[in-house]
């Protein structure tokens, strides 16, 4: 074969190749990691030099206190520095000659709905919207609520707020009017940005109607929203009966195009709040997690670069919605800070059919693909042919986030989707951590273990604690906590610093408490075992729900499983499993025995579920997390005490499960 042909074959068959942005050896990783822990002040200052600042940070810019006995909990990074994250995401690339490079490749609900916006287009639109926000009296520190589907206007609105120092609060466009009102009132937004509606598969979602109801509720609650800016979605116009309130509502297409396409960025202090993001805790009202500017920017930019091996011009796709943290850090800020081309996906991965993801990857030649195990599990049941008929040779790095990935899904992702060529970065992190915490890096030196989130990212010191708060060293298991601060961490909860301290720092003073359990193996690899509130103790055996779920999900007839612990008079707790079969016809006694035998064989007799409850589907939050709290209540017959189910994607699943109890 001609040399060039050989070369081009190598390129298209594309084994993962080391690039300058990749850490190229274990020794390099260890050296940088060590440095990041021993000298956080110096290490992160060096990293921060890759970004544009209007004023450099002080020499000793980093300080924190994690000990509740030692005064208030606080962290600051890059103290004294001033920057603007929107400038770093956009202006910088336009100035560097990348203005005509695509920034967003938007794909709508239908495969033929497409829109490309270049970096120059996005910058101009961000400036117009910033100018409009300023004209509405929005000032630095004011909060703007965004209730939008996955259209370019959503990240544009986030960046426009950031440009003028306003704080954005994105509320997933699936929350009910009540939840939306609660979140708007909590942060007292006077401006809300929304759209007429959106199509999710074949279903229209009437967003403006929901906003109208929410704003009525706000009025009743004594909070008035002055302005609602509405994006017109031609595929989903205003629903009959939904109107425009002339004194409050304005159209994006009438008011934004006439604004000037330049707007000076507001250079803000490093610790100026950038956004609020509400997340549910195990109890009480949703928490408004507050992220600030400088540390978050550096953490997001640097982790995206190393974890996804990202360089300017790379086509990157995260299936996350901007309504949750992944959509903030690894769809909007991180990729744009690295000059990437972002696919913005405004549909559902199974619409019009289960090949949609692979079509999108082929069409846009996606290089890095970041998704959640739940999606993989739902797709893998349909077999491999649906995947392999599309060209995935552009793929180089695959990412997983949101929950532990079971081995079966990991292998399918690696072997079928990634053709064994792409490393899988199983990234463990949280809304509160802001950025990746524990993850493999995509270098051939980095050994991958299916199901393990692997090693700490730079600057992160994970520790395992015993229930008494003693550090477990070496190989062992415990409660996952983090020692020492990292740049991307949340600084407080909106209007409730006390709750921030009591939730995350009081359980073990001196540490950030993650709420997850984990195990460290002989190689120092970390395996997340699930939330500590989900750990089941059966006759003294500690069993991670994730472990049992993983075992069930390994069975080819099991599409998905969720396991909870229920009180048991003799064993303390017993294991209660909800199982979705790939073929519902198989539900019955015989299948139960098959699954029980399978778990017994995979983990051991102590891990066998006492109950297998057939579940046509599982109650999930809109970000795809199984709501185990609800499953526990249903299992224990306490459905009157379900608590807040406002974050469920489909609340009717709960009634269905109740009706199937004992079947
Ligand atoms: C980013 C995000 C955080 C919780 C976290 C943990 C679970 C996330 C995971 C994972 C195992 C992973 N989680 N990534 N568990 N392996 N790679 O999901 O944020 O929505 O706040 O959820 O998700 O339990 O504590 P958030």
Count of DSSP E strands?
A: 32
What fraction of the residues are assigned to beta strands by DSSP?
A: 15-25%
What is the fold-level CATH name, i.e. the topology of the largest domain?
Answer: Rossmann fold
Rg, alpha carbons? 24 Å
Please identify the oligomeric state.
Answer: single chain
Distance between the termini: 64 Å
Q: What CATH first level of the largest domain would be assigned?
A: Alpha Beta
Number of discrete helical segments: 20
Write down the overall mean pLDDT: 92
How would you summarize the topology of this molecule?
Elements (H helix, E strand, L loop, with lengths): L2 H11 L12 H13 L1 H9 L4 E3 L7 E3 L8 E3 L5 E2 L1 H14 L3 E6 L6 E5 H17 L7 E5 L5 H11 L3 E4 L6 H11 L3 E5 L2 E3 L2 E3 L1 H14 L6 E5 L17 E3 H4 L12 E2 L3 E7 L7 E6 L1 H14 L7 E4 L6 H13 L3 E5 L10 H9 L3 E4 L1 H8 L4 H4 L8 E5 L5 H11 L6 E4 L34 E4 L5 E2 L3 E8 L8 E2 L3 H9 L5 E10 L5 E6 L4 E3 L2 E3 L1 H10 L3 E11 L3 E10 L7 H14 L8 E4 L13 H8 L16 H8 L4
Parallel strand pairs: 5-18, 7-8, 7-9, 8-15, 9-12, 12-13, 17-18, 17-19, 19-20, 20-21, 31-32
Antiparallel strand pairs: 1-4, 2-3, 4-14, 5-6, 10-11, 15-16, 16-25, 22-23, 22-24, 24-26, 26-27, 28-29, 30-31
Helix pairs in contact: 2-3, 4-5, 4-6, 4-11, 5-6, 7-8, 10-11, 13-15
This protein binds ligand 6R9.
């Amino acid at each position: 074969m001609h040399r060039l042909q050989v070369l081009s074959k190598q390129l298209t068959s594309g084994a993962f190749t080391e690039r300058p942005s990749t850490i190229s050896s274990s020794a390099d990783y260890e050296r940088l990691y060590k440095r990041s822990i021993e000298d956080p002040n110096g290490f992160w200052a060096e990293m921060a030099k890759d970004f544009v600042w209007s004023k450099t940070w002080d020499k000793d810019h980093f300080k924190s206190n994690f000990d509740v006995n030692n005064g208030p909990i606080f962290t600051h990074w890059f103290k004294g520095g001033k920057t603007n994250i929107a400038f770093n995401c956009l202006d910088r690339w336009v100035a560097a000659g990348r203005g005509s490079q695509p920034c967003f490749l938007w794909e709508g609900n239908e495969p033929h709905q497409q829109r490309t916006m270049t970096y120059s287009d996005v910058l101009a639109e961000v400036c117009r919207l910033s100018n409009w926000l300023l004209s509405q009296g929005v000032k630095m520190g004011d909060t703007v609520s965004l209730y939008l589907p996955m259209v370019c206007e959503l990240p544009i609105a986030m960046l426009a707020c950031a440009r003028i120092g306003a704080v954005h609060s994105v509320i997933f466009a699936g929350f009910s009017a009540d939840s939306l009102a609660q979140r708007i009132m909590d942060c007292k937004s006077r401006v809300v940005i929304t759209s007429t509606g959106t199509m999710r598969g074949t279903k229209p979602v009437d967003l403006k109607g929901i906003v109208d109801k929410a704003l009525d509720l706000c009025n009743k609650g004594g909070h008035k929203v002055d302005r609602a800016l509405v994006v017109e979605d031609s595929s989903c116009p205003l629903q009959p009966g939904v109107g425009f309130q002339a004194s409050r509502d304005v159209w994006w297409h009438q008011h934004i195009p006439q604004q000037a396409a330049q707007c000076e960025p507001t250079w803000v202090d490093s610790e100026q709040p950038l956004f609020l993001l509400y997340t549910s805790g195990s109890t009480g009202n949703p928490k408004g997690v507050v992220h600030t500017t400088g540390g978050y920017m550096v953490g997001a930019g640097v982790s995206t670069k190393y974890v996804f091996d990202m360089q300017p011009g790379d086509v990157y796709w995260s299936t996350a919605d901007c309504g949750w943290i992944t959509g903030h850090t690894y769809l909007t800020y991180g990729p744009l800070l690295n000059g990437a081309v972002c696919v913005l996906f405004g549909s559902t991965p199974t619409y019009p059919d289960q090949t949609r993801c692979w079509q999108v990857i082929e069409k846009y030649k996606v290089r890095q693909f970041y998704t959640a195990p739940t999606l993989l599990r739902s797709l893998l049941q349909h077999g491999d042919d649906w995947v392999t008929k599309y060209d995935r040779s552009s793929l180089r790095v695959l990412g997983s986030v949101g929950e532990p990935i079971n081995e079966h899904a990991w292998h399918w992702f690696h072997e079928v989707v990634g053709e064994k060529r792409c490393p899988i970065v199983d990234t463990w992190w949280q809304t509160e951590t802001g950025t990746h915490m524990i993850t493999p890096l995509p270098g051939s030196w980095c050994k991958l273990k299916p199901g393990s989130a692997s090693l700490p990212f730079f600057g992160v010191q994970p520790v395992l604690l015993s229930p008494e708060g003693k550090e477990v060293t070496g190989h062992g298991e415990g409660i996952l906590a983090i020692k020492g601060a990292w740049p991307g961490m949340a600084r407080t909860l909106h209007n409730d610093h006390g709750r921030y301290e009591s939730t995350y720092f009081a359980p073990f003073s001196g540490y950030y408490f993650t709420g997850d359990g984990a195990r460290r193996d002989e190689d120092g690899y970390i395996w997340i075992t699930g939330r500590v509130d989900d750990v089941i103790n059966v006759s003294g055996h500690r069993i991670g729900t994730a472990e049992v779920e993983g075992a069930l999900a390994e069975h080819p007839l099991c599409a998905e499983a969720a396991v909870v612990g229920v009180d048991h008079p003799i064993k303390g707790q017993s294991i209660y499993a909800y199982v979705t079969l790939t073929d519902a016809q198989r539900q019955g006694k015989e299948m139960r025995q098959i699954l029980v035998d399978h778990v017994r064989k995979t983990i051991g007799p102590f891990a066998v579920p006492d109950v297998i409850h057939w579940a046509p589907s599982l109650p999930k939050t809109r970000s795809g997390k199984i709501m185990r709290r609800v499953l526990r209540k249903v299992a224990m017959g306490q459905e009157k005490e379900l608590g807040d189910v406002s974050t469920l994607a489909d609340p009717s699943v709960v009634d269905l499960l109740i009706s199937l109890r004992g079947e």
